[in-house]
Each structure stands twice: as structure tokens, then as C-alpha cells.
Design brief:
The complex is a heterodimer of chains A (354) and B (278). Chain A is an alpha+beta fold. Chain A is 24% helix and 34% strand. Classes of the chains: A alpha+beta (354), B mainly alpha (278).
Chain lengths: 354, 278
Amino acid sequence: MSAIELKGVSKRYGTTPVLHAMDLAVASGEFVVLVGPSGCGKSTLLRMIAGLEEVSAGEIRIGGTLVNELAPKARDIAMVFQSYALYPHMSVADNMAYSLRLRGKSKQHIETAIQSAAVKLGLGALLDRKPRALSGGQRQRVAMGRAIVREPKAFLFDEPLSNLDARLREHMRAEIKKLHRELGATSIYVTHDQIEAMTLADRILAMNGGRVQQLGSPLELYDRPANLFVAEFIGSPAMNLFAAQFSRRQGRPMLIHSGFAIALERDPSLSEGSALTVGIRPEHISLGSGALAGVVDLVEPTGLGTIVHLTLGGTALKAFSLERRPLTLGGTLAMQLPPHRLHLFDADGVRVAQ
Amino acid sequence: MISLRRSCYWASHYLLIALYVVFALFPLFWLVKVALTPNDLLYSEGIKLWPSRTSLEHFNFVLTHSEFPLFFRNSVIVSCATALIVSLISAACGYGLSRFNFRGKGVLMALMLITQMFPLVMLVAPMFRLLAPLGLTNSLTGLVIVYSAFNAPFATFLMQSFFEAIPKELEEAAMIDGATRFGAFRRIILPLTLPGIAATGGFVFTAAWSELLFALMLNSSSRASTFPVGLLSFVSKFSVDFGQMMAAGVLALIPACLFFLLIQRYLVRGLTAGAVKG
């Protein structure tokens, strides 16, 4: 396993920039997830690491070797594609053996490698089948198997679970995590699904518009989003956001919204009248007690808990509660926005330290 | 009520298909019928769906007393050579056009399209002027060159669409697995494009097999004539020998049928099923 290092890596198509000077250091054995909306450049970055796209500027190193000009086959990485890209005219065993044969491995080595991969992935009974005779989940496993028989320097995953249905996706997510723990392989995983990113990653790199938004552990991104983009993107149901003004009343820091006001516990170093965007996660809104009164608009039971849609001082909010309380639509509900749970973002969308 | 309407619907469905098949195959039936009718019955029996007596005399004459076997051999050589050359060229060009972006690609494709716009008759005289000094008139080589040139652009477009139907990820996966681009083409893409190559080959073969205009204009000696030209030799100044002409026509159908019988299993699509989601 090897570390992967990106320094000032950028990509242009003609004069259109797609990636702006990216830096990233993936430690050996680390699992890094690139997450962002479609078109944010995350797949392009992965394909550049794989050698399928040229690098416009900057350096990519795999295991300390500069690979900018190396062909994909010389980089010794394995990739799992969203479409799986299984060779349709080859059996499952041949699909997995292909890369080993190209590297001139002995028959016996190939046989053992395939058997051990088949055992790990539960493909034993399918080795003679052609890809067209497999279900989506099985194809996905074969694609994984093709990657792991190689024992490559690093694994690259390009949205490998997007084509599976929800249940299977959840299952394979856990499988991938287990496999990673077993193999300890350096992995870079691209997805637009923030749940996948949260559950799989050692570290998440959130991207938007070809720029890094935040790099950190999943809980860091969840608890302290660096900007509005990350705040909105990570978490489901999404963080509530509303506009407010900062003010000091008798020396006490306050957030003034057109319909309500919240006293802050700590004084952020902000000037009087600063325009802010305030965020609070649905599960952090406390219902049933407090000085604020919201009107219940809609109730969505999820089984695990309840998502309550409320209007508070003209602003729509979503609250998530584990309690099953009787709620009447149109009725008022006492609630509270705990000050220490609030996220403040300045006019540029950057997090304000509290 | 509903089931009655359904069966009426299906009955008319099959009736229409049957009508179409009869319409399409009737000329072939007539060809065989005339070829098997002895000369004395050809004009005396009037129009009948099947003659009262059949004989193989026309086939016998064509095979033993005419130059037809020579024409036939020439046609096989020209058509096979053309199909082979055009398949190779169009596979290579089609792959290039479908996988790479390069300067002048648009212009190149427009030029290829333009070659398809001219009525061939316009080109007969210039072609003759070009080939005559090179000694390529009255020669099978000349015909192969001309047919290849005319068929290559269309075949290239055909092959390009076949390559485009094969996901790029397949060769990307192969290249990551350790193949070179050419290796990925040979081991992964080519086997999957065989149906396309077979279809293209079949198309070009039949086009060359039935071409008359250039075969007639570029070659005057019977040594280098192909069978469509040969068919004309059954038309003489005062009579047309329909029986022999039809017999020759039936014989000419055989290689085309054999060729399609050979490649038909490649023509069945669906070989790429299972490569990607679907």
C-alpha cells in the first residue's frame, strides 16, 4: 500500500477550468472520500489519479513516484467503475484473472488469487458465469473482486454503489468498509451520497465547483462545517438555515431575526449589525419546551423518529425528534433553538468562530 | 368482446406481415420458377404460377456452355477482397473517430459524407481516365480499388456507431488492469465489435457483388468481367434468353446467401449485455 499525494493539481478543458489547484495527501492505508454534487470535478480528479485524464498542472505522486506522465497500466492502481465495466465476453473468473495474466503471473498464483477473492466476496458459485447472467449486486462484487486480486498500490472507487437499489447499497457499503479493514488498502472513493461519505471515510474531502470546500473527518464536517456549502451538503434531513442580524443588547450578544431573537452564550467577534446566516441541525431543535412558539405545518413519521415541519416567525424549519408526541397540524408548539448548537456563517458563507 | 378484438388485432397483424413477406419474396420465386421452366413451355403456357414440367436444362447450359463460371469466380474474388479491405479500413477509422478527438475531425467527417452525395454516374469518366494509364482497367484489382474507395466512407460511419455503442469504461478498465491501448482494443473491444464488423463486411460484400455500372464501364474483356455484366450477355440483339439468365441469377444468389448464413450469428446483437448496468 502506498500514499497518494496531490500538489497543486488542476485541470482545464481548453480554457475552461474544471479543477483549481487541489492539494491532498492520502496516507498509506487511509480511506478518503471525495464528495460533492455532480459536476464538482470529483470524478475528474479520480480519473486523473488513475491516468485516464491528463493533468493540466501540478503533481500527482503514488508511493512517492511522480506519475503525471505514466500510463494507467504503469501506476499499479485498481479502479471500480460506476458502470462496473466488466468484460462481457469473459467469465467472472476470467474477468478477475485478466489483469494477473497481463502481468505474467503463474497459473497457480492466478488460481489462488481468484479463489481467495471469490471466498471474500461470496462469488464461489458464479466463477463460470458471464456478466450478463449476474444481478446488479453480483456484478458489483465481481468489479470489486477484479480490483482486489491485483493487490494494487491503491484502490479508486468511482461511485461504485450508485447503480444499486437502496437495500443492496447499504449492504455493500458495510462490505466495502469490512474489506477495507481487512486489506488496509489506500482508497479514494468518489460519491455524491453524503451518507456513504460519512459512513465509509477516514477523512472526507468536500468539493464544489472544482474547489476544495473542507477536508476533515466525517464528524468534523458534520459538527463544524467550514462554510455554507458543507453545512447544506452534509446531513439528512439538511441543516436549517435562516438569515439574521448580529446585535448587542445591553452588552449581550443576540441574533435578531425578523420574527424572533436568540441570545448567544458566547460573544463572537462581530460588528454590530453584521448580516449572518444561522444554521441549526433538525435534531438539535428542542421541541415541547422553550420560549419560542412554532406552528406545525407537516408531520413526517420515519419510524425511528418524526420530522416536524414548523414555521417560526415566518421562517420554515425542520425539526427531528425521537419522541412520538401527539401533534396537531396548524397548532403551536413550544420550542427552543439551543444557542450552543447554532452555526454562524458570515456574508461570504464562511463559518464564524464562536 | 375484448378477446375477440384482441384476436382480430393479432390476425390482422400476422396478415400484414404475411402480405409483406409475399410481396418481398415474389420476385425471387419468379426467378426460380422461370429458371426451372423448359424453353418450350416458357412462351406456350401463358402466365402460370408453376410450370407443368420442370427441368434443369438452363442450369446445365449456364454451367457448361457459357462463360458464367469465370464471371462467377471473378465476382467472388472482387467481392471478398473488397469486403476484407473495407472491413479492416473502416474498423480502424471507425475506432479512431469514435474514441479520439483531434484537430480536423469535423472536416474529415464532412468530407466523407460529401463523397456519398455524388451520383456514381458522374464519376465514371474521370475514374476511367484515372485508371486507364495505370493499367487498372480490364483488371479485377482496379475494380477492388474502386469498390473499396466507394464503400469505405459509409462502412466507416457504420463501424463508428458500433464502436460508440461499446462503453469507454471497458477499455479504461482494461488499461488500468495493465493493457496498452492497442491491447485493450484487440482483447476487449474487437471481440465485442465482431457483430458490427460482420455486418459491415456483409453489407460491403453484397454491394460489390451486385455492382454493375463500374464493372461494365471499366472492364470490356470477359476475362475480367463480373457476373452482373455476365448476365447482360444473355441479352442478344434479337432475343433475350430468359431461362438461362434466370438460372444464372439463381446461381449468383447462392454465395450471397451462404455469406449471410455464415455471419448471421454475429449479426444477432446483445453480445455486450452485462458489461455495464442494464
